[in-house]
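Z., the sequence and structure:
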Amino acid sequence: MKEIQICIGSACHVKGSYDVVSCFKKLVEEQGLEDEVHLQGAFCMNACGDGVAVKYNDQIVTVKPEGVPALFEKIMEAE
C-alpha cells in the first residue's frame, strides 16, 4: 500500500492543497487504485516553500496542482 500524505495546513491551503488533494483523488479513482493508495491529510511538514507539501516514502516534496500527475507517476513507480 502506497501512503501519500498531503499537507492541508494554512500555508499549503493558501497554495492550493484542496486542488492537489482533488488531483490525487481523481488519479487514484481513474486508475482503480483505491486498494493500493491511501491518501491522508497532514499538517505542517516544514516545507512551505514552492507549493503544497506532499510526503511519500519518507520524502517530502512540494507540488502545484499541475505537477500532481508527474509526481503520482513517480510515486507509483517507486518501490
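The domain at 2-77 is CATH 3.40.30.10 (Glutaredoxin). The chain has three helices and four strands.

Let me know what you think.
H.
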